[in-house]
Amino acid sequence: MASFRTIDDLGDLTGKKVLLRSDLNVPVQDGRVSDKTRLTATAPTIKDLLAKGATVLVLSHFDRPKGKRVPEMSLKPIAPALGEVLGMDVAFVDDCVGAEAEAAVAALPAGSVAVLENTRFHAGEEKNDAELAQGMARLGDIFVNDAFSAAHRAHASTEALARVLPAYAGRSMEKELTALENGLGNPERPVAAVVGGAKVSSKLDVLTNLVGKVDHLIIGGGMANTFLAARGVSVGKSLCEHDLAETALSILAKADEAGCTVHLPYDVVVAKEFKANAENRVVNVHEVGEDEMILDVGPAAVEALGDVLKVCKTVVWNGPLGAFEIAPFDRATVALAKTAAALTQGGSLTSVAGGGDTVAALNHAGVSQDFTFISTAGGAFLEWMEGKALPGVEALKN
Questions:
Q1: Per-residue pLDDT of the chain (398 residues; tens, 9 = 90+)
Q2: Secondary structure letter of residue 397 according to DSSP
Q3: Alpha-carbon distance 322 to 263, whole Å?
Q4: Structural domains for the chain
Q5: Which residues are annotated as catalytic?
Q6: Are 113 and 70 in contact (CB under 8 A)?
């Protein structure tokens, strides 16, 4: 994975200014940052750059101001919060391009950190405008990208800027790319993928890409119902995209050709209503009543899936197996997550997971700390699972 340069390739940076693209798009309530996870994630990069003598100028988007100055979408409140994480004063510069920004940056003491104003206040940001990137480049000498979560977008501060200045991956980006390479790029085999979630339609590209790359594909969540129905199983009132039966069958055929084993549940948990602690029963998939809906994978199937993970060296996970938000339909997700975590801790499995629902499900199972790597990047992680090239990553390659 040495196709891109990292901070380790940078020498002494005394007197140099580094434009650091981070993801500071954090939740703010009443002018205060309510979750500092992303700030903490980019802190090691900032500290390493400071240790090399650099002045660090942090670029980020925030929300969707659509190319206009929207005061409530300013990054100003983020500067003190980042300062708390770093244990030092962090300045704020009222723009990320132009004469005033250049003057403010020139006045910064060497070795300091400043947050520049929201890149999306400029319409050229989302258009990947070369001129805007040139303007940003005038503020610094080197570009470091630490925002994997924004890497699937070709924007001025993620893609164009990397072509104007010498470009390097930050620590968070490096960690993410290394983990992803170990997950699907060049993984230890056998590899299993767990794909769950409500709809096949939202994960069509993921499923199509994975059957050619993994040895075992475990399908759960509402999308499993679509595959079961395509195979002639009656799924009652379950969430199911009946119009995608042909597509589901073609994915199964591709898996067959590629030598990938697809695992669909053979016992399931059903209920007549979708609510917490609804009356439910465990049945074989061929025994789902017309007035029932499948809300989770059954215990026998989960045990078998655990056995699959035991013979695998790598697992990539995206999406829950059932309606994990409501008990008791979280059982399958929690059980399989705990098995994956135990195997990871035991040293026999590399586990990489990502996507919003997945992170929530693994937190719910209490195993987030026990996976090899959990990506907090939603869209970028999904596009990586789809096998797509990510513009922000491609721009970092030599």
A1: 458 899 999 999 999 999 999 999 999 998 899 999 899 999 999 999 999 999 999 999 999 999 999 999 999 999 999 999 999 999 999 999 999 999 999 999 999 999 999 999 999 999 999 999 999 999 999 999 999 999 999 999 999 999 999 999 999 999 999 999 999 999 999 999 999 999 999 999 999 999 999 999 999 999 999 999 999 999 999 999 999 999 999 999 999 999 999 999 999 999 999 999 999 999 999 999 999 999 999 999 999 999 999 999 999 999 999 999 999 999 999 999 999 999 999 999 999 999 878 999 999 999 999 999 999 888 899 999 999 999 999 999 86
A2: B
A3: 15
A4: 7-175 (3.40.50.1260), 187-385 (3.40.50.1260)
A5: 38, 199, 356, 379
A6: no
